[in-house]
Design goal:
455 residues; alpha+beta; Beta-Lactamase; Heat Shock Protein 90; five-stranded antiparallel β-sheet; 12 helices; binds adenosine-5'-triphosphate; binds magnesium ion
């Protein structure tokens, strides 16, 4: 119904007549018209307010639906409670987790949702939020089967429009999946560690295999010398026994003299000294090799100790070279001595790895050569190993020290040599290990060791 703002007097008369109203005189008429005008204006305002109210209502409903859809889509649980810990609102995630409807939960105690073992902590939330928030507190919520299920909850205070504390808001993230994923990750990590240890072990065995070949070759020389000398001494023993028997058995002096010449007793006596010295030297060399082997093979027990880096470089070079059918030429540019206070066994292991790699790189190439230079600068010893192999391209250079990076065929290399050497050189010995291509071609590895390793 829409009233006209300016009705004709005639119409007004007609209306009053229809309503059985009094017949209007001139003064009454003006007053009535004024009243009706006011009513009309008020009515128009009312209509205007109603339209605005309906619009606001629609907007409010939209906003509420939006908030509800957001809250019910949350995968985290949401609980709103008053300051006494009575539940006022929950979301769908909590309904799903507890297997209970919101209507059933609202009005109940917040602590009732949790395992009795955690109830006391949850009851404390109301106190805690007066002084701040509760962050990432792990508690057990009772799930649909009444079983405790771990969730990490945050609890924050809620204030009314006057800024007064009116309750608390709890959000929680179920940790079951996270715990399971964590356990699986832990298991996978353990398996990986075991596999890695096995690989490291097999890489050690492979290096050991090569080393044993070198050591066997090293031992062969002094043992052959001792063996040969002993055979000679054995023969001399027989001749001496014969001569002494004749001498002490009453044989005439002339015959004894003839026997002495026949058995070459004088030469035999002159020979015995060098034979014994040679054997002693050979046995001493065997002892040294065994001692070196012992030092290298027991790195776990080794601590920091003084040693001569020059000697370690020489031994590593000998072991690697002797293990090859065609050993590369080893050019050593070393000072007479360079004493270090560090880890001899690890240093030996690094050098053997680097020299083995260099020997592999030059294998089958014309005039294979490995050059080793040792110098001392700025409190460090620097060993530069340069070979005349093919070197490496940029993409290889970036991955040289990665575990398992190898360009060698299966069974020939595990790709752990440089990774292990790098960690020994940097972490254990407090030094540096780097690689580049030499300007004249071939690979160049630089190992730097502090003159005094960290304890
Ligand atoms: N002197 C070198 N010249 C050229 N390439 C090299 C040299 N040293 C190492 N490399 C490259 O780096 C790779 C990784 O070396 P690393 O010592 O880590 O493993 P590997 O020698 O392949 O195997 P492993 O040492 O376990 O027997 C090698 O496969 C090779 O491609
Ligand atoms: Mg290697």
């Amino acid at each position: 119904m829409k009233a006209a703002r300016d009705p004709a007097d005639a119409d007004l008369q007609g209306l009053l007549a229809q309503a059985g109203g009094p017949e209007l005189t001139g003064g009454d008429e003006t007053a009535w018209i004024e009243v009706i005008r006011r009513m009309d204006a008020i009515y128009a305002d009312l209509v205007h307010y109603q339209v605005a109210l309906e619009e606001k209502n629609a907007r409010l409903e939209n906003a509420q639906r939006f908030i509800e859809s957001v809250i019910s889509s949350m995968s985290d649980v949401l609980i709103v409670a008053d300051t006494r810990g009575r539940i006022q609102q929950v979301n769908r995630a909590l309904e799903r987790l507890t297997g209970r409807a919101a209507a059933d939960l609202v009005g109940g105690p917040l602590a009732g949702l949790f395992d009795p073992a955690c109830a006391a902590r949850v009851e404390d939330f109301a106190e805690h939020i007066r002084s701040g928030t509760v962050t990432d507190c792990e508690v057990d919520l009772l799930d649909a089967r009444g079983e405790p299920t771990p969730i990490a909850i945050n609890c924050t205070p809620r204030h009314d429009h006057d800024g007064r504390l009116s309750g608390l808001v709890v959000t929680g993230r179920p940790l079951g999946e996270l715990h399971r994923a964590y356990d699986e990750l832990q298991l996978a990590h353990e398996r990986l560690k075991t596999t890695q240890q096995q690989l490291v072990q097999s890489e050690k065995m492979a290096s050991l295999g090569q080393l044993v070949a070198g050591v066997a070759h090293e031992l062969n020389n002094p043992i052959s010398v001792v063996y040969g000398n002993m055979h000679a001494l054995k023969r001399y023993e027989g001749r001496l026994a014969r001569y002494l028997e004749a001498l002490h058995g009453g044989t005439p002096p002339a015959q004894c003299e003839a026997l002495r010449r026949e058995l070459k007793i004088d030469r035999l006596l002159a020979d015995m000294g060098p034979l014994i010295d040679g054997s002693l030297e050979g046995a001493g060399r065997v002892g040294d090799i065994v001692e070196e082997l012992r030092r290298f093979s027991t790195p776990v027990r080794q601590g920091r100790q003084p040693f001569d880096l020059v000697r370690v470089i020489r031994t590593a070079g000998e072991w690697v070279g002797k293990a090859r059918r065609v050993p590369p030429a080893l050019e050593l540019e070393l000072p007479p001595r360079l004493p270090l206070d560090g880890y001899e066994g690890y240093t030996h292991q690094i050098l053997v790895n680097l020299l083995q790699n260099a020997a592999d790189a030059v294998e089958g190439r014309p005039a294979p050569r490995i050059h080793v230079r040792l110098e001392q600068a700025q409190g460090r010893a620097r060993v530069v190993i340069h070979d005349n192999g093919p070197g490496f391209d940029e993409s290889q250079r970036l991955r040289l020290f990665d575990p398992f990076f190898t360009t060698k065929p299966v069974g020939k290399g595990t790709g752990l040599g440089l990774a292990i050497s790098y960690s020994l050189a940097t972490e254990t010995c407090g030094g540096r290990l780097s690689a580049d291509n030499h300007p004249d071609g071939g690979a160049r590895f630089t190992l730097e060791l502090p003159l005094e390793a960290p304890a």
